[in-house]
Amino acid sequence: MMLNKEESIFKNDGIFFIRILTLGCSSLVTILYCLFVELFYKNVLDVESIRRLFVFETSKFVAEGSEKLQYMGSAVLFTLCVLFFNYIFKKAHINFSKLKWLQYLVSALILVVPVCAAFAFCIKNLPEFSSAPKNIVAIIGAALLIAFGIAVGKLGKNNKKAASVLLYAQTIGFSLIIVAFNLFKKVGCEDGFNWHFDALYFPVEKLLDGLTEGVDYHSIYGFYPYLCYIPMKILGIFSSDRILNFSILCSALCGVSYFILCSILKRHLKNITVLSLSISALTVLMGTTNYLVSLYPYYQYQPHRVIFPCIMLSMISLFYTERIGKKAFYFLGIVISAMSLFWNIDSGIVCTGGFLLTFWYKEAFENSFLFDKNCCKQYIKTVLQIIAAGISVIVLTLCSVFLVIFVGSKQIFNPLNVFFGQLTFYGYGYYMLRMPAVGSWIGVICAYVVALPVSLSAIKAFRKKDENLPFMGMLFSLSIIGVAAFSYYQGRSHEFCLVPVMWPAIMILAILLDSLLDKHSLTQIISYNMKKVGISALSIVLAVFIFFTVLSGENFFIYQRKNFKSLDYASAAEVIDKYPNTQVEFLTFYETGYYEYFHMPNEKKVTAAIDCMLVTDFEQNIDFINDTNKIVAMGAQFYYRMNDFYGGQLLKKISDNKEIIDNLDSGWIFFIPKEK
Fold first, then answer.
1. What is the per-residue DSSP string for 444-489?
2. FRET partner for 482 with CA separation of 20 to 30 A, picked from 401, 496, 623, 644?
3. Are strands 658-663 and 668-673 parallel, antiparallel or unpaired?
């Protein structure tokens, strides 16, 4: 049952203008806060600690203290300002009838900014990876996908069952395409490809070979290998190629995460055309992203940082639509949040924040206790439940880590090692890039700036009108998860990192567009007179991402035709063949490929070369070379890095009982045990 006109929060244009004015004032206060932090907060690089702990030059580190303070503070301050100014302006009883021109001006700006940001992204990035013929083909492809969406929408008016079949076919088809885009062997490709793949795969390889992460080696991406262990063992029954098996696992997770998001949209969107267009637009963000720029999958974000937020968002959707109860959501949320933190701290924080605030939002929506003094007891009870859930998530995560590592190594784990990656990147600022003051990111933030205050104000406006909860709740939870996921771009601010974090904003865009097209829905963002402008603006942004979907597909097929530089096995094999009775270990940036090629287990208890960031990592490798009775084949790139760090004196640290074969011109240096 829809709200009567008298019950609507949009009884007149004055209410709408209060929203606009609230957004404007809140944005102004937030901007002033950011300027204040920029002027008075000094970014201090901990040079002494960096030189003591890390093997990299201090030029590789960027202090981002002020930016982190701005980003985290803005997220909280803006939301509080919205609630404050909305209350003040409503109490003021200002006559806005003479200020309609300003209302339309601000409305237009809110609509234009995302569109301009989308086109700015296109103009800035297209020359890097595209050409005129490819752009023409991409435009034609985008037009066909849009035409398909419109056709399915028209079919749905007469035959909903047939339209539903086509939508499922589209979802499954794109899911399979995403799997195919990501599924092929990684070894034997260009250097940059292996660089990233190695960092994610080597912890899994070492675990499969009997070592214990957190004791024998560390990983910057979390304890995900333990959750990958059983699937990798199952895949190993069918194939002995573990790199291929890991590719299959990651590709499947890419397809699953995309399918989950499409299922969520199907649950919440009423307009079939918008649903079809959204399914097409999400493809570029959920699996084919990397073919836009770098032409290879970047599993460190998708699926690594996306799969658990997708699972959590699916559960949130079921919670809002009453498909699972409060108790089930509460306890399942704790378990999934703990698993996500165990998998990866970054995505775990996204999941945990989304879960806890979703639980609060539904309670607030149903009781309106955010504004009602009579609901004080219920409010306190909910807050205590949230605190208990948060503590349970942390305890469950740490206990899982301690238990798994103790069972694997019989050693007590240092809890600080859980945060190794976060301390390295966010704490000290390794490989960070500051966010530009003005950039394409503004368009993404606009989605959250609009959706978050609208969903919060609905807590009081609808007062237990449960039919509005799925719409408003998803706006709220997508905003929370989107803001948390956006921190990935905030830390490393180049456009390539912006594209993967856009998926919550695209889903918000789709939900808002669906609301505007639904004749029975309330217009939550713009007034009735601006409805056509809003539909046009949001449709253009969707079309832009559909264009990118096609373009990324073209780049994929170009990638498949490229001739990549193969890893050089011959020079290593030539030396190894001279010592048939001696085992070999590799110390090189792409070591996983060599272990796979020579069919050898990776059992050395040192952090892989790709993740050697600390001085202790280098020392550990030197001790390993000196102590092992195996041949050590060190790649030239890794040798030069270590040798530069030790001022050209690396070989002096190698024991006299090692014979050194300098074959650096062919990419290797070998350390051979001398016969006793």
1. HHHHHHHHHHHHHHHHHHSSS-GGGHHHHHHHHHHHHHHHHHHHHH
2. 401
3. antiparallel
Query: How far apart are the C-alpha atoms of 177 and 254, rounded to whole Å?
Result: 10
Q: What is the DSSP string of 587-628?
A: ESTTHHHHHHHTT-----SS--GGG--BHHHHHHHHHHHHH-
Which of 163, 145, 167 lies closest to 154 in space, CA to CA? 163
Q: Which residue has the tokens 């509080």?
A: 80
State the Cα–Cα distance between residues 463 and 372, nearest whole angstrom. 11
Round to whole Å and give the CA distance between 228 and 250: 10
**Chain centroid to CA 448: how far?**
16
Q: Residue 70: phi, psi to the nearest 5? A: -65, -45
pLDDT tens for each residue of 562-586? 544 556 677 778 777 888 777 888 8
Q: Rounded to 5, what percent of the chain is helix, strand, coil? A: 70, 5, 25
Q: Which of 85-94, 196-205, 391-400, 623-632 has the weakest average pLDDT?
A: 85-94
Candidates 22, 13, 21; CA nearest to 84 is 22
Res. 372: pLDDT tops 80: no
Q: How far apart are CA 280 and CA 174, in angstroms?
A: 8
Would you state the pLDDT for residue 565? 53
**Sign of CA pseudo-dihedral 330, 84, 472, 258:** negative
Which residue has tokens 């918008």? Answer: 274
Could you tell me if 231 and 604 are in contact, meaning their C-beta atoms sit under 8 angstroms apart? Answer: no
- HSE of 457 in the Cβ direction (CA atoms, 13 Å)? 26
Q: What is the three-class DSSP state of 672? A: strand
Would you state the structure tokens that stand for residue 269, as one six-digit string?
């969107």
Q: Which of 563, 600, 588 lies closest to 663 in space, CA to CA?
A: 588
For residue 372, report the phi and psi dihedrals to the nearest 5 degrees: -110, 120
pLDDT tens digits, one per residue of 375-389: 777 788 888 999 999
The reported pLDDT for the residue numbered 525 is 46
Residue 166 is predicted with a pLDDT of 93
3-state secondary structure of 183: coil
Q: Which of 637, 648, 647, 608 lies closest to 624, judged by CA?
A: 608
CA 266 – CA 176 distance, rounded (Å): 18
**Would you state the pLDDT for residue 235?**
92
Residue 43 gets which letter from DSSP?
A: P
Residues 121, 547 contacting (CB under 8 angstroms): no
Using DSSP's 3-state secondary structure scheme, residue 586 falls into: strand
Residue 659: its H or E element? strand 658-663
Bridge partners of 470, per DSSP, are none
What pairs with residue 670 in β-bridges? Answer: 633, 661
Q: What's the CA gap between 56 and 50, in Å, rounded?
A: 8
H/E segment holding residue 663 = strand 658-663
Other CB atoms within 10 A of residue 409 CB = 15
